[in-house]
């Protein structure tokens, strides 16, 4: 019988149970024992759900209270010195301090850096290592969770981030090569694998996703070294898991490492199957990633079955496993909760539970079970229904896309000339201060939105409420002394969902939650058809806010690449075409904002780097259409209108030329966690436009003081000309409270004034 397995399951729960448990703990409303009990209940529920869906071997240790990379670093005692004292007396507090920072009593700790997990919108915490780092096994999380499942009668496969990927995803604080630490790390892995074997684990999954990236000879040698060492220790059998792309030139390496099984992604790279079958020894298990772990469309089961039968023809059923392409971390839990989604659209979708059922159908069909045929027929019918549906296609949108010309993606004059006109129009001081857009979404704001959505608050009363919140936000910014204001975005639920709700071609789920980081969950829109803008989306509130003040008011939009990346995107046309459709809709909005008197317009693109393909050879085609889409959205305005953009948690070295090609007048970026290190890319490139390096980490509850921000701004001034610098937080402030927000922004404005005084005195 063909084995159905899974690489990882969503942690947050179908109704965001983990989010609520975490935030209750952080607020002091529950204790550690209650938090851990909630986590254990979720794990038990998810293991049983997977078994009920037809999974033979579910994973364990795929659960995390915050982030699996952070878990792995802590597991091997890679805890930076600044957290050590706290870790010895309060391990859970230290864990969350590494994730979020901590400011309490005499403790003031910065969080670890955070960046994107490959080309996804999941953020991981970057481990900090140093030369001669000592690794030891700390705690027993993988062992404990394996025992939990066994106590429930469920045999699982523990999941671990592999040693080479762990090192390559880390940073060293002293400039040394992380791979130099491999021999220090491997004994801790060997000890852990031995303990798992003693507990009865027959298999363990080691995730090595870097194997689908470009690797140099030193990294390939590190893989050979690592798995040669692990081959000679008592341990369970190893499934080496790769995903997010093709092995390509790393195929021979992956196929010859001394492990007992290999997982490959046949959704992103179905073309690799034949070569993998030839390269992988017949004694090894081959795990086929046949359903998409990163999107929510029904799988084309007939096509997947062709691949599975081809693989079966080259090895026995006992050496063939069926699995999702990657962990289901990136998908919602269960489609059956979507009671309000219309039936036709719902028939096109599959969430995590349904994807596992699809795999069971494939396995049954592969084993000759005729009971699989109705499910195969249903999938066939749904896919054909989607292909033919008139709601998917819009001839007007396709015609406008076809009519795009090169001139539609170019501002009328170069930035140097535009900057002079913008300076005259905006009349800003040196080191102008602003924020990224959103202000605190308090419980009162969320409750009002929910009451309006449920019909308990009339549209007029809701508008009155939003107007009062907006005016309060404007007055607070004036009192603080910010130079360029924002309206606060109180009418918005999410920076992508809000726009998708007002664009044709989008649909929305009620419980389609996925984890972005920690307790931060998002509900990505579903782009099912051609995209257009029926009416203005943001003009009303931006115009109202501008009427309340004489200071410049920024209009706030989410850029086309980010709307694309942070949605579940249709897979029946190119992503480039879908992105340009979104860009045209946003272009209309930008022009309407300008016509309404808004002279600064921010088009956020935090996902630009996230969308970069994992192979360098594929970068330029992506960057070409991504930059083109942004410029289409931004290039319809006059020279005196200042276009801003915002990016966060990105490695700018890889894309600095593309960032410059966006030709935004001002870019604000996240830099506080890295202590301005990310500015080095802008300095080396001699970035021509203006930059706002973040001086306040809004993902942490700690409030930096003026001196800390002055220090960061001095670092920025040391690498970029002062006349290019803006002053702003790292990101939007919606997750923060008003008290801390006000305190931090007052310190930020004071820091800018200090820099202005220093510049005047120089």
What does this structure look like?
The protein has an eight-stranded parallel sheet with strand order 1-14-13-12-11-10-8-2. It has 762 residues and is an alpha/beta fold. Helix 1 runs antiparallel to helix 2 (32-52). It has two domains: 3-11 and 37-63 and 138-388, TIM Barrel (Alpha-Beta Barrel), CATH 3.20.20.210; 395-441 and 481-761, TIM Barrel (Alpha-Beta Barrel). Zn(2+) 1 binds at residues 646, 648, 670, 731. Residues 431-753 form the Cobalamin-independent methionine synthase MetE C-terminal/archaeal domain. Belongs to the vitamin-B12 independent methionine synthase family.
Report the portion of residues in β strands: 5-15%
Q: What is the mean predicted local confidence, pLDDT?
A: 95
Radius of gyration: 26 Å
Structural class: alpha/beta
CATH architecture of the largest domain: Alpha-Beta Barrel
What are the salient characteristics of this protein?
TIM Barrel; eight-stranded parallel β-sheet; 762 residues; five-stranded parallel β-sheet; alpha/beta
Summarize it.
With 762 residues, the chain is of the alpha/beta class. The protein is built from 28 helices and 24 strands. The chain has 2 domains: 3-11 and 37-63 and 138-388, TIM Barrel; 395-441 and 481-761, TIM Barrel (Alpha-Beta Barrel), CATH 3.20.20.210.
Topology:
Elements: E1 3-4, H1 17-26, H2 32-52, E2 59-60, H3 68-75, H4 81-89, H5 91-100, E3 102-104, E4 107-109, E5 114-116, E6 123-125, E7 128-129, H6 141-151, E8 157-161, H7 163-168, E9 171-172, H8 182-199, E10 203-207, H9 217-231, E11 237-241, H10 251-256, E12 261-265, H11 273-279, E13 285-291, H12 301-312, E14 320-324, H13 343-346, H14 352-366, H15 373-388, H16 395-402, H17 415-426, H18 443-453, H19 459-480, H20 497-500, E15 504-507, E16 514-517, E17 520-522, E18 526-532, H21 539-547, E19 554-558, H22 560-565, E20 568-569, H23 575-595, E21 600-604, H24 619-634, E22 642-647, H25 656-661, E23 666-669, H26 679-685, E24 690-693, H27 706-719, H28 738-761
């Amino acid at each position: 019988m063909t084995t159905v397995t899974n690489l990882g399951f969503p942690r947050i729960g179908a109704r965001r149970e983990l989010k609520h448990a975490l935030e209750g703990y952080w607020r002091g409303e529950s204790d550690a024992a209650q938090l851990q009990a909630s986590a254990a209940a979720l794990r038990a529920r998810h293991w049983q759900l997977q078994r009920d869906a037809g999974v033979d071997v579910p994973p364990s240790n795929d659960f995390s209270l915050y982030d699996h990379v952070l878990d792995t670093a802590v597991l091997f005692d890679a805890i930076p010195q600044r957290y050590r004292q706290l870790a010895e007396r309060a391990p859970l507090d230290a864990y969350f301090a590494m994730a979020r920072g901590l400011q309490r009593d005499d403790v003031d700790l910065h969080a670890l850096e955070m960046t994107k997990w490959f080309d996804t919108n999941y953020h991981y915490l970057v481990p900090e290592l140093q030369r001669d780092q000592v690794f030891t096994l700390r705690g027993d999380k993988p062992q404990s969770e394996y025992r939990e499942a066994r106590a429930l009668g469920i045999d699982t496969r523990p999941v671990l981030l592999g040693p080479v990927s762990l090192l390559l995803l880390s940073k060293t604080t002293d400039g040394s090569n992380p791979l130099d630490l491999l021999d220090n790390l491997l004994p801790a892995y060997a000890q852990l694998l031995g303990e798992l074997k003693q507990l009865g684990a027959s298999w363990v999954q080691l995730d090595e996703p870097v194997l689908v990236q470009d690797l140099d000879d030193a990294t390939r040698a590190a893989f050979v070294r690592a798995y040669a060492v692990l081959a000679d220790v008592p341990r369970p059998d190893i499934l080496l898991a790769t995903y997010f792309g093709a092995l390509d030139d790393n195929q021979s390496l992956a196929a010859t490492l001394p492990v007992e099984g290999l997982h490959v992604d046949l959704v992103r790279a179905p073309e690799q199957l034949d070569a993998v079958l030839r390269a992988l020894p017949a004694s090894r298990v081959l795990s086929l990633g046949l359903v998409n772990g990163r999107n929510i469309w029904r799988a084309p089961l007939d096509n997947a079955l062709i691949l599975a039968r081809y693989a079966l023809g080259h090895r026995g059923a006992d050496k063939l496993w069926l699995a999702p392409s990657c962990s289901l971390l990136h998908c919602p839990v269960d489609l059956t909760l979507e009671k309000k989604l219309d039936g036709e659209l719902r028939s096109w979708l599959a969430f995590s539970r349904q994807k596992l059922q699809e795999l069971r159908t494939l396995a049954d069909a592969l084993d000759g079970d005729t009971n699989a045929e109705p499910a195969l027929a249903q999938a066939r019918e749904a896919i054909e229904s989607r292909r033919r549906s008139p709601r998917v296609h819009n001839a007007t949108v396709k015609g406008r896309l076809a009519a795009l010309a090169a001139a539609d993606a170019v501002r009328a004059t170069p930035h140097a000339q535009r900057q002079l006109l913008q300076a005259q129009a905006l009349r800003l001081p040196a080191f102008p201060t602003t924020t990224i857009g959103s202000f605190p979404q308090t419980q009162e704001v969320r409750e009002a939105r929910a009451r309006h959505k449920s019909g308990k608050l009339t549209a007029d009363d809701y508008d009155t409420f939003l107007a009062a919140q907006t005016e309060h936000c404007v007055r607070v910014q004036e009192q603080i002394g910010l130079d360029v204001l924002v309206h606060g975005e109180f009418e918005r639920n999410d920076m992508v969902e809000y726009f998708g709700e007002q664009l044709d071609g989008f649909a929305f789920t009620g419980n389609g939650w996925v984890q972005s980081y920690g307790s931060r969950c998002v509900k990505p829109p579903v782009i099912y058809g051609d995209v257009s803008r029926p009416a203005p989306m943001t003009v009303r509130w931006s115009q109202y806010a501008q009427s309340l003040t004489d200071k410049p008011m920024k209009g706030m939009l989410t850029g086309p690449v980010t709307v694309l990346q942070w949605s579940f995107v249709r897979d029946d046309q190119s992503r480039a075409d879908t992105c340009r459709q979104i860009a045209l809709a946003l272009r209309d909005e930008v022009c309407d904002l300008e016509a309404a008197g808004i002279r600064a317009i921010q088009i956020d693109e935090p996902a630009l780097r996230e969308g970069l393909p994992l192979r360098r050879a594929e970068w330029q085609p992506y960057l070409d259409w991504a930059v083109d889409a942004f410029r289409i959205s931004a290039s319809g305005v006059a020279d005196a209108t200042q276009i801003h953009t915002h990016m966060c948690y990105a490695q700018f070295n890889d894309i600095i030329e593309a960032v410059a090609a966006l030709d935004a007048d001002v870019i604000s970026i996240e830099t506080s966690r890295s202590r301005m290190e990310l500015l080095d890319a802008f300095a080396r490139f001699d970035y021509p436009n203006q930059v706002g390096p973040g001086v306040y980490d809004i993902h942490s509850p700690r409030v930096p003081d003026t001196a800390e921000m002055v220090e960061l701004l001095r670092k920025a001034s040391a690498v970029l000309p002062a006349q290019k610098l803006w002053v702003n937080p790292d990101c939007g402030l919606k997750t923060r409270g008003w008290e801390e927000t006000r305190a931090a922004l007052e310190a930020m404005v004071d820091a800018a004034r200090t820099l202005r005084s220093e510049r005047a005195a120089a």
